[in-house]
Design a protein that fits this description.
With 502 residues, this protein is an alpha/beta fold. The protein is built from 15 helices and 20 strands. The chain folds into two domains: 161 residues, Leucine Aminopeptidase, subunit E, domain 1 (3-Layer(aba) Sandwich), CATH 3.40.220.10; 315 residues, Zn peptidases (Aminopeptidase). It has an eight-stranded mixed sheet with strand order 8-9-11-10-14-18-15-16, with helices on both faces. Strands 1, 2, 3, 4, 5, 6 and 7 form a seven-stranded mixed sheet that branches. Strands 12-13-17 form a three-stranded mixed sheet. Strand 10, helix 9 and strand 11 form a beta-alpha-beta unit. The longest helix is centred in the middle third of the chain and has 25 residues. The two termini are 32 Å apart. The structure holds ligand BES, manganese (II) ion and zinc ion.
Protein backbone atom coordinates (compact mmCIF):
# COMPACT_ATOMS: atom_id res chain seq x y z
CA UNK A 1 0.00 0.00 0.00
CA UNK A 2 1.10 3.50 -0.73
CA UNK A 3 2.50 5.55 2.16
CA UNK A 4 1.35 9.16 2.31
CA UNK A 5 2.54 12.08 4.38
CA UNK A 6 2.77 15.87 4.40
CA UNK A 7 6.17 17.43 4.06
CA UNK A 8 7.56 20.96 4.33
CA UNK A 9 10.71 20.06 2.42
CA UNK A 10 11.68 22.52 -0.27
CA UNK A 11 10.65 21.17 -3.65
CA UNK A 12 14.04 22.00 -5.19
CA UNK A 13 16.15 19.96 -2.76
CA UNK A 14 13.83 16.97 -2.59
CA UNK A 15 15.08 13.65 -3.93
CA UNK A 16 12.16 11.98 -5.68
CA UNK A 17 11.37 10.16 -8.89
CA UNK A 18 8.97 12.91 -9.82
CA UNK A 19 7.77 16.34 -8.75
CA UNK A 20 4.17 17.11 -9.64
CA UNK A 21 3.01 20.65 -10.34
CA UNK A 22 -0.35 22.07 -11.41
CA UNK A 23 -1.04 24.02 -14.59
CA UNK A 24 -4.26 25.75 -15.59
CA UNK A 25 -5.87 27.30 -18.64
CA UNK A 26 -5.44 31.06 -18.50
CA UNK A 27 -6.85 33.63 -20.94
CA UNK A 28 -3.38 33.92 -22.55
CA UNK A 29 -2.13 30.35 -22.43
CA UNK A 30 -1.17 28.12 -19.59
CA UNK A 31 -0.71 29.39 -16.05
CA UNK A 32 1.33 27.73 -13.30
CA UNK A 33 -0.65 26.97 -10.15
CA UNK A 34 0.54 27.86 -6.63
CA UNK A 35 2.92 25.28 -5.16
CA UNK A 36 5.05 25.03 -8.27
CA UNK A 37 7.10 28.24 -7.71
CA UNK A 38 10.38 26.51 -6.89
CA UNK A 39 10.06 24.29 -9.93
CA UNK A 40 9.35 27.30 -12.14
CA UNK A 41 12.47 29.00 -10.77
CA UNK A 42 14.60 26.00 -11.68
CA UNK A 43 13.38 26.39 -15.26
CA UNK A 44 14.52 30.03 -15.19
CA UNK A 45 11.16 31.38 -16.23
CA UNK A 46 10.79 29.08 -19.22
CA UNK A 47 8.52 26.45 -17.65
CA UNK A 48 5.18 27.58 -19.10
CA UNK A 49 6.77 27.87 -22.54
CA UNK A 50 8.40 24.43 -22.30
CA UNK A 51 5.15 22.83 -21.16
CA UNK A 52 3.14 24.52 -23.91
CA UNK A 53 5.63 23.26 -26.49
CA UNK A 54 5.11 19.75 -25.16
CA UNK A 55 1.36 20.12 -25.61
CA UNK A 56 0.18 21.10 -22.15
CA UNK A 57 -3.00 23.19 -22.13
CA UNK A 58 -3.90 23.13 -18.45
CA UNK A 59 -7.12 21.26 -19.20
CA UNK A 60 -8.38 18.68 -16.74
CA UNK A 61 -6.76 15.33 -17.54
CA UNK A 62 -3.56 16.91 -18.93
CA UNK A 63 -0.37 15.13 -17.88
CA UNK A 64 2.89 16.31 -19.43
CA UNK A 65 6.34 15.05 -18.37
CA UNK A 66 9.57 17.07 -18.58
CA UNK A 67 13.04 15.98 -17.49
CA UNK A 68 14.00 18.01 -14.42
CA UNK A 69 16.65 20.73 -14.94
CA UNK A 70 19.88 20.84 -12.93
CA UNK A 71 18.40 22.97 -10.17
CA UNK A 72 16.09 20.21 -9.01
CA UNK A 73 17.00 16.99 -7.20
CA UNK A 74 13.98 15.15 -8.61
CA UNK A 75 14.38 13.22 -11.84
CA UNK A 76 11.21 14.33 -13.55
CA UNK A 77 8.60 17.06 -13.48
CA UNK A 78 5.00 16.12 -14.21
CA UNK A 79 2.56 18.93 -14.95
CA UNK A 80 -1.09 18.04 -14.44
CA UNK A 81 -4.06 20.10 -15.58
CA UNK A 82 -6.42 21.86 -13.17
CA UNK A 83 -8.86 23.21 -15.76
CA UNK A 84 -9.64 26.92 -15.99
CA UNK A 85 -7.29 29.18 -14.04
CA UNK A 86 -8.97 30.73 -11.00
CA UNK A 87 -8.06 33.41 -8.50
CA UNK A 88 -8.30 32.65 -4.81
CA UNK A 89 -7.94 28.89 -4.74
CA UNK A 90 -8.78 25.87 -6.86
CA UNK A 91 -11.87 23.79 -6.12
CA UNK A 92 -11.11 20.69 -4.03
CA UNK A 93 -12.49 18.45 -6.77
CA UNK A 94 -10.07 19.95 -9.34
CA UNK A 95 -7.21 19.20 -6.93
CA UNK A 96 -8.42 15.66 -6.24
CA UNK A 97 -8.70 14.91 -9.94
CA UNK A 98 -5.31 16.42 -10.82
CA UNK A 99 -3.61 14.53 -7.97
CA UNK A 100 -5.36 11.38 -9.13
CA UNK A 101 -4.09 11.82 -12.68
CA UNK A 102 -0.57 12.31 -11.29
CA UNK A 103 -0.66 9.15 -9.16
CA UNK A 104 -2.04 7.14 -12.05
CA UNK A 105 0.45 8.50 -14.59
CA UNK A 106 3.40 7.86 -12.27
CA UNK A 107 2.54 4.25 -11.38
CA UNK A 108 5.82 2.36 -11.13
CA UNK A 109 7.62 5.25 -9.36
CA UNK A 110 8.95 4.75 -5.84
CA UNK A 111 8.69 8.27 -4.51
CA UNK A 112 6.53 11.13 -5.77
CA UNK A 113 6.27 14.64 -4.34
CA UNK A 114 3.15 16.68 -5.06
CA UNK A 115 3.83 20.41 -5.35
CA UNK A 116 0.19 21.24 -6.03
CA UNK A 117 -1.79 24.01 -4.32
CA UNK A 118 -1.87 22.81 -0.68
CA UNK A 119 -1.94 25.75 1.68
CA UNK A 120 -5.27 25.25 3.45
CA UNK A 121 -6.12 22.02 5.29
CA UNK A 122 -8.94 21.52 2.79
CA UNK A 123 -6.46 21.64 -0.09
CA UNK A 124 -4.05 19.28 1.65
CA UNK A 125 -6.89 16.79 2.16
CA UNK A 126 -8.04 17.06 -1.45
CA UNK A 127 -4.55 16.50 -2.87
CA UNK A 128 -3.91 13.60 -0.47
CA UNK A 129 -7.21 11.86 -1.16
CA UNK A 130 -7.07 12.32 -4.92
CA UNK A 131 -3.53 10.93 -5.01
CA UNK A 132 -4.37 7.91 -2.85
CA UNK A 133 -7.41 7.11 -4.97
CA UNK A 134 -5.33 7.59 -8.11
CA UNK A 135 -2.85 4.93 -7.01
CA UNK A 136 -5.58 2.31 -7.21
CA UNK A 137 -5.21 -0.52 -9.70
CA UNK A 138 -6.79 -3.94 -9.50
CA UNK A 139 -4.25 -6.61 -10.27
CA UNK A 140 -5.51 -9.57 -8.24
CA UNK A 141 -6.03 -11.89 -11.19
CA UNK A 142 -3.25 -10.67 -13.48
CA UNK A 143 -0.16 -12.86 -13.71
CA UNK A 144 2.01 -9.75 -13.97
CA UNK A 145 0.22 -7.79 -11.23
CA UNK A 146 -0.81 -4.34 -12.42
CA UNK A 147 0.66 -4.69 -15.88
CA UNK A 148 4.05 -4.90 -14.22
CA UNK A 149 3.70 -1.48 -12.61
CA UNK A 150 3.46 -1.18 -8.85
CA UNK A 151 1.42 1.72 -7.48
CA UNK A 152 3.53 4.70 -6.33
CA UNK A 153 5.35 3.59 -3.17
CA UNK A 154 5.53 6.87 -1.30
CA UNK A 155 3.56 10.08 -1.79
CA UNK A 156 4.60 13.38 -0.24
CA UNK A 157 2.14 16.26 -0.18
CA UNK A 158 4.29 19.40 -0.07
CA UNK A 159 2.76 22.11 2.06
CA UNK A 160 3.94 24.84 4.39
CA UNK A 161 1.14 23.76 6.65
CA UNK A 162 2.80 20.62 8.01
CA UNK A 163 2.69 20.32 11.79
CA UNK A 164 -0.40 22.45 12.08
CA UNK A 165 -3.07 20.35 13.70
CA UNK A 166 -5.68 20.79 11.03
CA UNK A 167 -3.34 19.65 8.23
CA UNK A 168 -2.48 16.52 10.18
CA UNK A 169 -6.16 15.78 10.75
CA UNK A 170 -6.83 16.42 7.07
CA UNK A 171 -4.25 13.85 6.02
CA UNK A 172 -5.59 11.33 8.54
CA UNK A 173 -9.05 11.77 7.08
CA UNK A 174 -7.77 11.38 3.53
CA UNK A 175 -5.86 8.21 4.44
CA UNK A 176 -8.78 6.59 6.28
CA UNK A 177 -11.31 7.44 3.58
CA UNK A 178 -8.94 6.70 0.69
CA UNK A 179 -7.84 3.32 2.02
CA UNK A 180 -11.39 2.23 2.80
CA UNK A 181 -12.58 3.38 -0.62
CA UNK A 182 -9.81 1.39 -2.27
CA UNK A 183 -10.82 -1.63 -0.20
CA UNK A 184 -14.43 -1.18 -1.34
CA UNK A 185 -13.17 -1.04 -4.93
CA UNK A 186 -11.40 -4.37 -4.38
CA UNK A 187 -14.66 -5.92 -3.16
CA UNK A 188 -16.58 -4.60 -6.17
CA UNK A 189 -13.90 -5.74 -8.63
CA UNK A 190 -13.54 -9.22 -7.15
CA UNK A 191 -14.92 -11.89 -9.48
CA UNK A 192 -18.33 -13.20 -8.43
CA UNK A 193 -17.03 -16.75 -8.23
CA UNK A 194 -14.82 -15.53 -5.39
CA UNK A 195 -17.01 -12.94 -3.72
CA UNK A 196 -20.33 -14.43 -2.61
CA UNK A 197 -22.51 -13.70 0.42
CA UNK A 198 -20.57 -16.06 2.64
CA UNK A 199 -17.10 -14.84 1.66
CA UNK A 200 -18.22 -11.20 1.88
CA UNK A 201 -19.55 -11.85 5.39
CA UNK A 202 -16.22 -13.45 6.34
CA UNK A 203 -14.36 -10.38 5.08
CA UNK A 204 -16.64 -8.17 7.17
CA UNK A 205 -15.96 -10.32 10.23
CA UNK A 206 -12.21 -10.11 9.72
CA UNK A 207 -12.34 -6.34 9.27
CA UNK A 208 -14.50 -6.10 12.38
CA UNK A 209 -11.79 -7.88 14.36
CA UNK A 210 -9.06 -5.72 12.88
CA UNK A 211 -10.83 -2.44 13.67
CA UNK A 212 -12.77 -3.33 16.80
CA UNK A 213 -16.24 -3.25 15.29
CA UNK A 214 -19.08 -5.49 16.36
CA UNK A 215 -20.09 -7.81 13.51
CA UNK A 216 -23.10 -10.12 13.53
CA UNK A 217 -23.90 -12.46 10.65
CA UNK A 218 -27.27 -14.09 10.06
CA UNK A 219 -26.80 -17.18 7.90
CA UNK A 220 -29.56 -18.88 5.92
CA UNK A 221 -30.78 -20.81 8.97
CA UNK A 222 -30.99 -17.69 11.09
CA UNK A 223 -32.69 -15.84 8.23
CA UNK A 224 -35.29 -18.60 7.98
CA UNK A 225 -35.89 -18.53 11.70
CA UNK A 226 -36.20 -14.75 11.64
CA UNK A 227 -38.57 -14.69 8.67
CA UNK A 228 -36.39 -12.74 6.23
CA UNK A 229 -38.43 -13.67 3.17
CA UNK A 230 -36.87 -11.07 0.89
CA UNK A 231 -33.27 -12.18 1.34
CA UNK A 232 -34.27 -15.86 1.23
CA UNK A 233 -36.49 -15.42 -1.80
CA UNK A 234 -33.73 -13.72 -3.81
CA UNK A 235 -31.07 -16.16 -2.61
CA UNK A 236 -33.17 -19.27 -3.28
CA UNK A 237 -31.87 -19.91 -6.77
CA UNK A 238 -28.22 -19.84 -5.80
CA UNK A 239 -25.83 -22.44 -4.46
CA UNK A 240 -24.45 -19.58 -2.35
CA UNK A 241 -27.05 -18.83 0.33
CA UNK A 242 -27.78 -15.27 1.52
CA UNK A 243 -26.49 -13.43 4.58
CA UNK A 244 -27.53 -10.38 6.55
CA UNK A 245 -24.49 -8.74 8.12
CA UNK A 246 -24.62 -6.08 10.81
CA UNK A 247 -21.46 -4.04 11.40
CA UNK A 248 -21.79 -1.70 14.36
CA UNK A 249 -19.64 1.21 15.45
CA UNK A 250 -20.62 3.00 18.62
CA UNK A 251 -19.19 6.04 20.36
CA UNK A 252 -19.87 6.69 24.06
CA UNK A 253 -20.63 10.36 23.33
CA UNK A 254 -22.52 9.79 20.09
CA UNK A 255 -24.46 12.81 18.82
CA UNK A 256 -26.65 10.70 16.55
CA UNK A 257 -27.38 7.12 15.54
CA UNK A 258 -27.20 6.33 11.84
CA UNK A 259 -28.15 3.18 9.94
CA UNK A 260 -26.56 2.64 6.53
CA UNK A 261 -28.17 -0.16 4.52
CA UNK A 262 -26.42 -1.56 1.44
CA UNK A 263 -27.67 -3.65 -1.46
CA UNK A 264 -25.28 -6.59 -1.66
CA UNK A 265 -26.21 -8.72 -4.66
CA UNK A 266 -22.86 -10.39 -5.30
CA UNK A 267 -24.11 -11.32 -8.76
CA UNK A 268 -27.33 -10.29 -10.48
CA UNK A 269 -28.21 -12.61 -13.35
CA UNK A 270 -31.82 -11.45 -13.13
CA UNK A 271 -32.94 -14.84 -11.83
CA UNK A 272 -35.77 -16.56 -13.72
CA UNK A 273 -36.43 -13.16 -15.35
CA UNK A 274 -32.94 -13.68 -16.76
CA UNK A 275 -31.06 -10.70 -18.10
CA UNK A 276 -30.19 -10.92 -21.80
CA UNK A 277 -26.55 -11.20 -22.87
CA UNK A 278 -24.97 -7.78 -22.79
CA UNK A 279 -26.69 -6.87 -19.54
CA UNK A 280 -24.99 -9.15 -17.06
CA UNK A 281 -21.24 -8.91 -17.74
CA UNK A 282 -20.76 -6.26 -15.06
CA UNK A 283 -23.37 -7.49 -12.61
CA UNK A 284 -20.74 -8.41 -10.03
CA UNK A 285 -20.97 -4.71 -9.20
CA UNK A 286 -24.46 -5.17 -7.79
CA UNK A 287 -23.01 -5.32 -4.27
CA UNK A 288 -21.47 -1.85 -4.54
CA UNK A 289 -24.02 -0.45 -2.08
CA UNK A 290 -23.02 -3.00 0.56
CA UNK A 291 -19.34 -2.28 -0.13
CA UNK A 292 -20.02 1.44 0.31
CA UNK A 293 -21.82 1.20 3.66
CA UNK A 294 -19.19 -1.22 4.89
CA UNK A 295 -16.34 1.13 3.92
CA UNK A 296 -18.19 4.03 5.52
CA UNK A 297 -18.64 2.36 8.91
CA UNK A 298 -14.98 1.29 9.00
CA UNK A 299 -13.89 4.83 8.06
CA UNK A 300 -16.18 6.28 10.77
CA UNK A 301 -14.47 4.01 13.30
CA UNK A 302 -10.97 4.86 12.09
CA UNK A 303 -11.80 8.55 12.40
CA UNK A 304 -13.38 8.05 15.83
CA UNK A 305 -16.43 10.09 14.85
CA UNK A 306 -18.80 11.00 17.69
CA UNK A 307 -21.69 9.12 16.23
CA UNK A 308 -23.11 5.60 16.17
CA UNK A 309 -23.11 3.98 12.75
CA UNK A 310 -24.55 0.60 11.93
CA UNK A 311 -24.00 -0.81 8.47
CA UNK A 312 -26.41 -3.48 7.26
CA UNK A 313 -25.18 -5.60 4.36
CA UNK A 314 -28.05 -7.35 2.57
CA UNK A 315 -26.13 -10.10 0.76
CA UNK A 316 -27.53 -12.55 -1.77
CA UNK A 317 -26.78 -13.95 -5.19
CA UNK A 318 -29.60 -13.69 -7.75
CA UNK A 319 -29.50 -16.85 -9.91
CA UNK A 320 -31.98 -18.92 -11.93
CA UNK A 321 -32.42 -22.57 -11.01
CA UNK A 322 -35.03 -25.16 -10.10
CA UNK A 323 -35.20 -23.71 -6.62
CA UNK A 324 -35.26 -20.07 -7.67
CA UNK A 325 -38.13 -17.72 -6.91
CA UNK A 326 -40.57 -17.62 -9.86
CA UNK A 327 -42.30 -14.58 -11.28
CA UNK A 328 -45.65 -15.01 -9.53
CA UNK A 329 -44.32 -16.21 -6.19
CA UNK A 330 -45.35 -14.38 -3.05
CA UNK A 331 -42.75 -13.67 -0.39
CA UNK A 332 -43.42 -12.84 3.24
CA UNK A 333 -40.91 -10.15 4.09
CA UNK A 334 -39.27 -9.51 7.44
CA UNK A 335 -41.92 -7.71 9.51
CA UNK A 336 -44.82 -9.51 7.80
CA UNK A 337 -45.65 -7.59 4.60
CA UNK A 338 -46.24 -9.81 1.56
CA UNK A 339 -44.81 -9.13 -1.89
CA UNK A 340 -45.77 -10.67 -5.20
CA UNK A 341 -42.61 -11.06 -7.24
CA UNK A 342 -43.57 -10.10 -10.78
CA UNK A 343 -40.01 -9.79 -12.01
CA UNK A 344 -37.17 -11.61 -10.30
CA UNK A 345 -34.75 -9.04 -11.72
CA UNK A 346 -36.22 -6.42 -9.37
CA UNK A 347 -34.41 -8.21 -6.55
CA UNK A 348 -32.53 -5.36 -4.89
CA UNK A 349 -35.65 -3.87 -3.37
CA UNK A 350 -36.54 -7.28 -1.90
CA UNK A 351 -33.29 -7.74 0.03
CA UNK A 352 -33.26 -4.07 1.01
CA UNK A 353 -36.83 -4.23 2.34
CA UNK A 354 -35.83 -6.91 4.86
CA UNK A 355 -32.74 -4.99 5.90
CA UNK A 356 -34.56 -1.65 6.17
CA UNK A 357 -37.22 -3.17 8.44
CA UNK A 358 -34.51 -4.78 10.57
CA UNK A 359 -32.51 -1.55 10.73
CA UNK A 360 -35.65 0.35 11.75
CA UNK A 361 -36.16 -1.92 14.77
CA UNK A 362 -33.12 -0.31 16.38
CA UNK A 363 -34.71 3.10 16.09
CA UNK A 364 -31.92 5.06 14.39
CA UNK A 365 -32.26 8.79 13.79
CA UNK A 366 -31.72 8.25 10.08
CA UNK A 367 -31.62 5.35 7.64
CA UNK A 368 -29.68 5.85 4.41
CA UNK A 369 -29.73 3.00 1.94
CA UNK A 370 -27.28 2.74 -0.94
CA UNK A 371 -28.04 0.55 -3.94
CA UNK A 372 -27.27 -0.14 -7.58
CA UNK A 373 -31.02 -0.34 -7.86
CA UNK A 374 -32.31 0.59 -11.30
CA UNK A 375 -31.29 0.96 -14.90
CA UNK A 376 -33.93 3.70 -15.01
CA UNK A 377 -31.77 5.89 -12.77
CA UNK A 378 -28.91 5.55 -15.27
CA UNK A 379 -31.25 6.57 -18.09
CA UNK A 380 -32.30 9.60 -16.05
CA UNK A 381 -28.96 10.80 -14.68
CA UNK A 382 -26.21 9.16 -16.71
CA UNK A 383 -23.17 7.25 -15.57
CA UNK A 384 -21.66 9.65 -13.08
CA UNK A 385 -24.55 10.94 -10.99
CA UNK A 386 -26.51 9.14 -8.31
CA UNK A 387 -30.13 9.87 -7.46
CA UNK A 388 -31.17 10.93 -3.97
CA UNK A 389 -34.69 10.14 -2.76
CA UNK A 390 -36.07 10.54 0.76
CA UNK A 391 -39.19 10.68 2.89
CA UNK A 392 -37.98 14.05 4.16
CA UNK A 393 -37.11 16.94 1.82
CA UNK A 394 -34.57 18.46 4.18
CA UNK A 395 -32.65 15.19 4.48
CA UNK A 396 -32.66 14.81 0.71
CA UNK A 397 -31.30 18.34 0.30
CA UNK A 398 -28.67 17.71 2.99
CA UNK A 399 -27.37 14.56 1.33
CA UNK A 400 -27.26 16.25 -2.05
CA UNK A 401 -25.31 19.15 -0.52
CA UNK A 402 -22.93 16.85 1.36
CA UNK A 403 -22.25 14.89 -1.83
CA UNK A 404 -21.39 18.12 -3.62
CA UNK A 405 -18.95 19.09 -0.88
CA UNK A 406 -16.96 15.88 -1.25
CA UNK A 407 -17.00 15.89 -5.05
CA UNK A 408 -19.69 13.28 -5.70
CA UNK A 409 -22.27 14.14 -8.34
CA UNK A 410 -25.85 13.57 -7.20
CA UNK A 411 -29.32 14.90 -7.88
CA UNK A 412 -32.50 15.05 -5.78
CA UNK A 413 -35.32 12.93 -7.20
CA UNK A 414 -39.02 12.91 -6.21
CA UNK A 415 -41.18 10.07 -4.92
CA UNK A 416 -44.45 10.96 -6.70
CA UNK A 417 -47.41 9.58 -4.78
CA UNK A 418 -49.32 8.54 -7.92
CA UNK A 419 -46.62 6.01 -8.87
CA UNK A 420 -47.33 4.03 -5.72
CA UNK A 421 -50.63 2.74 -7.09
CA UNK A 422 -49.01 0.59 -9.74
CA UNK A 423 -47.34 -1.46 -7.01
CA UNK A 424 -50.38 -1.92 -4.82
CA UNK A 425 -53.21 -2.39 -7.30
CA UNK A 426 -54.44 -5.76 -8.62
CA UNK A 427 -52.07 -8.04 -6.83
CA UNK A 428 -52.78 -10.91 -4.50
CA UNK A 429 -50.27 -9.58 -2.02
CA UNK A 430 -49.75 -6.32 -0.12
CA UNK A 431 -47.39 -5.11 -2.81
CA UNK A 432 -45.87 -6.15 -6.11
CA UNK A 433 -42.16 -5.68 -6.69
CA UNK A 434 -42.87 -3.82 -9.94
CA UNK A 435 -44.99 -0.85 -10.86
CA UNK A 436 -45.17 1.39 -13.90
CA UNK A 437 -42.19 1.25 -16.22
CA UNK A 438 -42.04 5.02 -16.52
CA UNK A 439 -40.13 6.52 -13.63
CA UNK A 440 -38.79 3.08 -12.71
CA UNK A 441 -36.14 4.48 -10.39
CA UNK A 442 -38.76 6.38 -8.44
CA UNK A 443 -41.08 3.36 -8.29
CA UNK A 444 -38.22 1.41 -6.70
CA UNK A 445 -37.75 4.22 -4.18
CA UNK A 446 -41.47 4.19 -3.38
CA UNK A 447 -41.28 0.43 -2.83
CA UNK A 448 -38.49 0.85 -0.26
CA UNK A 449 -40.38 3.66 1.46
CA UNK A 450 -43.14 1.17 2.32
CA UNK A 451 -40.69 -0.61 4.63
CA UNK A 452 -39.47 2.39 6.60
CA UNK A 453 -40.93 2.48 10.10
CA UNK A 454 -43.20 5.40 11.03
CA UNK A 455 -41.25 8.40 12.27
CA UNK A 456 -37.82 7.47 10.91
CA UNK A 457 -36.08 9.75 8.43
CA UNK A 458 -34.97 7.74 5.44
CA UNK A 459 -33.02 8.43 2.26
CA UNK A 460 -32.18 6.24 -0.70
CA UNK A 461 -29.14 6.69 -2.95
CA UNK A 462 -29.48 4.92 -6.31
CA UNK A 463 -25.85 4.55 -7.43
CA UNK A 464 -26.53 2.27 -10.44
CA UNK A 465 -24.77 4.79 -12.74
CA UNK A 466 -21.60 5.81 -10.89
CA UNK A 467 -20.90 2.56 -8.97
CA UNK A 468 -18.95 0.93 -11.79
CA UNK A 469 -16.87 2.81 -14.35
CA UNK A 470 -16.55 1.01 -17.67
CA UNK A 471 -14.91 3.74 -19.76
CA UNK A 472 -11.29 4.92 -19.66
CA UNK A 473 -10.01 6.09 -16.27
CA UNK A 474 -10.26 9.82 -15.48
CA UNK A 475 -9.07 11.89 -12.52
CA UNK A 476 -8.92 9.55 -9.54
CA UNK A 477 -11.55 7.22 -11.00
CA UNK A 478 -10.20 3.91 -12.30
CA UNK A 479 -11.95 1.39 -14.46
CA UNK A 480 -14.30 -0.86 -12.48
CA UNK A 481 -15.56 -0.28 -8.95
CA UNK A 482 -15.47 3.38 -7.92
CA UNK A 483 -16.60 3.26 -4.25
CA UNK A 484 -19.42 5.66 -5.08
CA UNK A 485 -21.27 7.15 -2.07
CA UNK A 486 -18.56 6.32 0.51
CA UNK A 487 -17.38 9.92 0.80
CA UNK A 488 -20.95 11.19 1.00
CA UNK A 489 -21.78 8.78 3.83
CA UNK A 490 -18.61 9.61 5.75
CA UNK A 491 -19.11 13.36 5.43
CA UNK A 492 -22.76 12.97 6.43
CA UNK A 493 -21.64 11.09 9.56
CA UNK A 494 -19.00 13.76 10.25
CA UNK A 495 -21.63 16.48 10.11
CA UNK A 496 -23.91 14.56 12.42
CA UNK A 497 -20.98 14.00 14.80
CA UNK A 498 -20.26 17.72 14.80
CA UNK A 499 -23.87 18.29 15.81
CA UNK A 500 -24.68 19.84 12.43
CA UNK A 501 -27.95 19.14 10.73
CA UNK A 502 -25.86 17.25 8.15
N1 LIG B 1 -28.94 -4.42 -10.59
C1 LIG B 1 -29.97 -3.98 -11.46
C2 LIG B 1 -29.86 -2.49 -11.79
C3 LIG B 1 -28.63 -2.08 -12.55
C4 LIG B 1 -28.65 -2.01 -13.93
C5 LIG B 1 -27.48 -1.73 -11.88
C6 LIG B 1 -27.51 -1.62 -14.64
C7 LIG B 1 -26.34 -1.34 -12.57
C8 LIG B 1 -26.36 -1.28 -13.94
C9 LIG B 1 -31.34 -4.25 -10.83
O1 LIG B 1 -31.42 -5.34 -9.99
C10 LIG B 1 -32.31 -4.47 -11.92
O2 LIG B 1 -32.17 -5.44 -12.61
N2 LIG B 1 -33.28 -3.58 -12.05
C11 LIG B 1 -34.28 -3.70 -13.05
C12 LIG B 1 -35.62 -3.43 -12.40
C13 LIG B 1 -36.80 -3.73 -13.27
C14 LIG B 1 -36.89 -5.22 -13.52
C15 LIG B 1 -38.03 -3.23 -12.57
C16 LIG B 1 -33.98 -2.67 -14.12
O3 LIG B 1 -33.52 -1.57 -13.79
O4 LIG B 1 -34.14 -2.98 -15.30
MN1 LIG C 1 -31.82 -7.14 -11.04
ZN1 LIG D 1 -29.69 -5.88 -9.07
Amino acid sequence: MTALSVSTSAAASLRADALVIGVAKGSKGIVLAPGGEAVAEAFEGKLAEVLATLGATGAEGDAVKVPAPAGLKAALVLAVGLGDAVEGGYAPEALRRAAGVAARTLAGSKKVALALPAESAEEVEAVALGALLGTYAYGTYKSNGNGGKEPVGELLVLSTRKGSKDAKAAVERAVAVGEEMNRARDLINAAPNDLNPKSFAAIAQAAGKEHGLKVEVLDEKALLKGGFGGLLGVGNGSANPPRLVKVAYTHPKAKATLAFVGKGITYDSGGISLKPAGHNETMKCDMAGAAAVFAAVVAAKRLGLQVNVTAWLALAENMPSGTATRPGDVLRMYGGKTVEVLNTDAEGRLVLADAIVRAGEENPDVIVDVATLTGAMILALGNRTFGVMANNDELRADLHAVAGEVGEQSWPMPLPAELRKGMTESTIADLANMGERMGGGLVAGLFLKEFVAEGIDWAHLDIAGPAFHEAAPFGYTPRGGTASAVRTLVRFAEQKAAGGKG
